[in-house]
UniProtKB/TrEMBL annotation, chain A:
Predominant localisation class: endoplasmic reticulum
Similarity comment: family membership: Belongs to the DPM3 family.
Summary of subunit composition and partner proteins: Component of the dolichol-phosphate mannose (DPM) synthase complex.
Gene name tied to this protein: Dpm3
Keywords: Endoplasmic reticulum, Glycosyltransferase, Membrane, Transferase, Transmembrane, Transmembrane helix
Name of the protein this chain belongs to: Dolichol-phosphate mannosyltransferase subunit 3
Organism domain of life: Eukaryota
UniProtKB/TrEMBL annotation, chain B:
Protein name as annotated: Dolichol-phosphate mannosyltransferase subunit 1
Record GO biological process: dolichol-linked oligosaccharide biosynthetic process; GPI anchor biosynthetic process; protein O-linked glycosylation via mannose
Cited Gene3D superfamilies: Spore Coat Polysaccharide Biosynthesis Protein SpsA, Chain A (3.90.550.10)
Cellular component GO terms, alphabetical: endoplasmic reticulum membrane
Chain's gene name: Dpm1
Highest taxon of the lineage: Eukaryota
Quaternary structure note: Component of the dolichol-phosphate mannose (DPM) synthase complex.
Amino acid sequence: PLPVFPLPLFPSLSFSPSPLSHPLSPQAAMTKLGQWLCGLALLGSAWAALALAPPGLQPPAPLRQALLPLPVYLLVAFGCYSLATVGYRLATFNDCEEAAAELQEHIKAARADLRRRGLRL
Amino acid sequence: ERVSVLLPTYNERDNLPLVVWLLVRTFSDSGIDFEIIIIDDGSPDGTQEIAQQLEKIYGSDKIVRKLFLFPSGTAYIHGMKYATGNFIVIMDADLSHHVRLDFMYCGKQKEGNFDIVSGTRYKGNGGVYGWDLKRKLISRGANFLTQVLLRPGASDLTGSFRLYRKEVLQKLMEKCVSKGYVFQMEMIVRARQLGYTIGEVPISFVDRVYGESKLGGNEIVSFLKGLLTLFATT
């Protein structure tokens, strides 16, 4: 699947289908929700297995300490990333002054021409 | 090769002649064979009468008029039955999509032989005019959410200015079930699933010159509902 991260500004803007979108691929049959649930289940169980393991099977202490709050950290990181991305995109959202002015010109020309051709507005 | 433009209208008496004039000029200037199919939803403001006048001016091989009372999103299905072109352009009749020569999708389409060429406000020199900060924020925020949840492979899903190959559009129409806003989004998502290629062209979205723009609380709620539905079903 295509990356989620900000898409770079291609000079030619186009997207080709990823090989994983082939009709016979299992990924194509699963909904996005399904993919998310699978992914979360996978990561969740891995995290639980390591972080919440019984005393006998625990990974070394420093690793455990980092692992326990990891989900929260990731959530916060994602939150920050989202804010930054949306903020950046908002700031760089083009205002088409030229296009608007051009449109007004076109409208004038259109009305004059249509009137000449017999349109009653 | 011919391009059919599908224009669903409701109360577009002021905008319709201008849009038609711009389209005619754009196509004539670039020598592309075209037709414009006006599908009116029973407008009470005289839109049909204007369409009739336009047909007289430009000829009935260029202007095709259809009257149809449709729920939003299905005007295209109806209009497509009458389209004789092998490419179909879907756009709004409200002058918000600025029909300039930049709109030469056929240029872009030829460049990459794409199945779909989609206008985007978010890339290149695409953009908007007449939007306040709040509206821009909502737009970017909604688009971000859409990208995260749907990973659609196109930067602008809710803009509805697109060129399709006729067979591609027909196939997508069969598969899509939503209405309105969400219908446009679903088309792109399904297109990706079916392996169609999508090219993008920057467009300018100039806020409605005549008439009211529709972005209120209701719109946002229905957008979110639609997005979550697509998330769960595609």
